[in-house]
């Protein structure tokens, strides 16, 4: 199978060299013929880095496994194949008054990918991560067996697979609990804040009063306007529509421009216009669910705007007690480096614990920044952001990453060895080889030297 369409969404890493369809991978695993480190599942390619790549092996195209198997309109439990897209689940469940309890920033992720990355949304303070709503899953491993996993059956494997970056085997299907909503529409409110101090003063109360809360930061603003932005809050409208819209907008970036369109002059104008348009009124307004949850889905292939070298996304989380010092330090580091971020998002994580062995969200504040790939200059900035995050006791998101050092990963996820112990030998990703595998080799050398 051609591998040209099996790239990372950030476009800063090469696409997969080899890809095979799911049925071939299933046959390999069931026969026990899968070679060590030869496979990694590939959903819809919305991971930003190399966690969905396997330079030394093959990626497995999971998109043909796209059947919704059952849906209970009373409980909201839906069972579907791992390759089903989130937008298809929304369309199937909406007429019955249900919506996924957790959605990330795009509806074009697969069910298996959402589980493997334990994705989060704008309501972590109330609903936790996607993994909190997984009832059970089926997992095919290189022992040739299909393992049914839940909180009571194969529980260790269940917890390792949620947030396990696809390393415990091939997720074939899963059952998840959706939440009942009065409508798909959102009552949205935008509140301006002058600086980050004012945002932090608002954030806790916003979480308590609303299902959804997220802030946009004007990362390029300097002087007295430094740290300004908009705090968006939302709740499902009591009286609104249950009708779904066609997934994906009419606009698209049909060809890749030869240069980065999202440069500093463009971002300066865009940020000013966005702040004026979204923040001109503090009155509550009805918003469609796609515009509220998935605004960038309205432009197909928008990642191409970064040009042929792609972009890096950096997402960190820092403890709440240190956030007022660390978040400004992260933004200041980007400003000093002269790097403008097209998407700068800040939100508060709550204390709802995920069942996952490895899960990025934890209590505190998470900051997301996008930077065009300018080579070594950008890599140096990202390393500085890693250092600031780790020094504060925080973590860097692995499924948004394409270059973090093994030490950063170990500091972010000190329990990584527990996942390595449950990793299926046939599964390996470029991310895991770059981080955990190197850590394992160093540990083995150190132990041998003692």
From TrEMBL:
It holds the Pfam family FAD_binding_4. Residues 1-181 form the FAD-binding PCMH-type domain. PROSITE patterns: FAD_PCMH (PS51387). The keyword Cytoplasm does not apply. InterPro entries: FAD-bd_PCMH, FAD-bd_PCMH-like_sf, FAD-bd_PCMH_sub1, FAD-bd_PCMH_sub2, FAD-linked_Oxidoreductases_BP, Oxid_FAD_bind_N. Keywords: FAD, Flavoprotein, Oxidoreductase. PANTHER family: CYTOKININ DEHYDROGENASE 6, GULONOLACTONE OXIDASE. Belongs to the oxygen-dependent FAD-linked oxidoreductase family. This is FAD/FMN-containing dehydrogenase.
């Amino acid at each position: 199978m051609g591998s040209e369409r099996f790239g990372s969404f950030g476009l800063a890493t090469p696409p997969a060299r080899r890809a095979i369809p799911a049925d071939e991978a299933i046959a390999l695993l069931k026969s026990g013929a899968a070679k060590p480190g030869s496979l990694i599942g590939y959903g819809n390619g919305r991971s930003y880095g190399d966690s969905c790549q396997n330079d030394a092996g093959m990626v497995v195209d999971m998109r043909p496994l796209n059947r919704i198997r059952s849906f209970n309109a009373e409980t909201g439990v839906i069972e579907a194949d791992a390759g089903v897209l989130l937008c298809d689940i929304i369309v199937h469940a909406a007429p019955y008054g249900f919506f996924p309890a957790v959605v990330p920033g795009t509806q074009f992720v697969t069910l298996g990918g959402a589980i493997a990355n334990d994705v989060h949304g704008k309501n972590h303070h109330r609903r936790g991560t996607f993994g909190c709503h997984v009832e059970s899953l089926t997992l095919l491993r290189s022992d040739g067996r299909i393992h049914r996993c839940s909180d009571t059956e194969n529980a260790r494997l269940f917890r390792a697979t949620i947030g396990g970056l696809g390393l415990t085997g091939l997720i074939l299907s899963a059952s998840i609990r959706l939440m009942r909503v009065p409508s798909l529409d959102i009552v949205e409110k935008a509140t301006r804040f002058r600086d980050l101090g004012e945002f932090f003063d608002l954030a806790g109360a916003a979480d308590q009063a609303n299902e959804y809360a997220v802030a946009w930061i004007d990362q390029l603003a300097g002087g007295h306007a430094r740290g300004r932005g908009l705090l968006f809050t939302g709740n499902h409208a009591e009286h609104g529509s249950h009708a779904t819209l066609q997934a994906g907008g009419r606009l698209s970036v049909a060809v890749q421009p030869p240069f980065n369109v999202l440069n500093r002059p463009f971002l300066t104008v865009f940020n000013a216009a966005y702040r004026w348009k979204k923040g001109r009124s503090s009155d509550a307004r009805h918003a469609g669910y796609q515009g509220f949850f998935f605004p960038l889905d309205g432009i197909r292939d928008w990642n191409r705007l970064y040009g042929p070298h792609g972009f890096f996304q950096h997402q960190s989380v820092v403890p709440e007690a240190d956030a007022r010092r660390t978040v400004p330090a992260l933004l200041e580091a980007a400003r000093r480096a002269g790097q403008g971020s097209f998407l700068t998002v800040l939100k508060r994580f709550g204390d709802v614990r995920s069942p996952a062995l490895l899960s990025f969200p934890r209590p505190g504040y998470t900051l997301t920044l996008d930077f065009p790939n300018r080579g070594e200059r950008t890599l140096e900035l990202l390393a500085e952001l890693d250092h600031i995050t780790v020094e504060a006791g925080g973590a860097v998101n692995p499924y948004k990453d394409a270059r973090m050092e093994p030490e950063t990963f170990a500091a972010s996820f000190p329990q990584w060895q527990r996942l390595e112990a449950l990793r299926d030998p046939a599964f390996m990703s470029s991310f895991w080889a770059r981080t955990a595998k190197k850590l394992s080799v160093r540990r083995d050398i150190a132990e041998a030297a003692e």
